[in-house]
Structure formats: structure tokens, C-alpha cells
Specification:
By secondary structure, the protein is mainly alpha-helical. Helices cover about 75% and strands about 0% of the residues. It has four helices and no strands. Helix 2 (about 35-50) crosses helix 4 (about 80-95) and helix 3 (about 65-75) runs antiparallel to helix 4.
Length: about 100
């Protein structure tokens, strides 16, 4: 019977610690680009973008402008969605 109050007090603490631990890796992973995706994006960018126009320097635009530009070019150049995401990851990783 004495263990019930201890368990009742420990349960909310365990839930809070678990939520904090579960949230931390997602935040870290979101800010770190996947190096394999960035490499695929660099290759796709070099092979596709320069076929129709001059290749822009990745540092020329910030993330928000690359987001719009790649979405526009995905439609115009009929790029597969995964390839466009790879190119976007490369451009965003390279403009810092």
C-alpha cells in the first residue's frame, strides 16, 4: 500500500522524461542534412539543371528562395519528387 503513492508520483515524471527524450532527436535530425541525400542532390543538380540554363551558385539564394525555385523547376522540368527533394537538400546545405 505504501508503494502506490510513490508510483503515482513517479508516473507523471516518467511521462515527462519520456516526452523530452522523444522530442530531442527529432529536433536535432531536422537541422542536420542527410549527407547521402545531399550527395544525390548534388549529382542530380549537376546532371539536370545545367541542361537548360546556367547553373546558379547555391549560395546565391537562401533556403526560402530555393524552396520556391526547386518547386517551380520540378514542375517545369518534370523532375521526379524524390529527385527535387534531393536537389533542394543539396542547395540548402550548400548556401551557408
Amino acid at each position: 500500500m505504501k508503494r502506490l503513492p510513490i508510483l503515482a508520483a513517479a508516473l507523471p515524471l516518467a511521462v515527462l522524461v519520456g516526452m523530452a527524450a522523444a522530442g530531442e532527436p527529432q529536433k536535432t535530425q531536422k537541422n542536420v542534412p542527410d549527407p547521402v541525400q545531399v550527395a544525390r542532390g548534388a549529382k542530380a543538380w549537376a546532371e539536370n539543371c545545367g541542361r537548360c540554363h546556367n547553373i546558379r551558385d547555391p549560395k546565391e539564394f537562401n533556403d526560402e528562395i530555393w524552396e520556391v525555385s526547386v518547386t517551380h523547376m520540378r514542375i517545369r522540368a518534370n523532375l521526379p519528387g524524390k529527385m527535387a527533394e534531393d536537389i533542394k537538400a543539396f542547395l540548402k546545405a550548400s548556401n551557408n
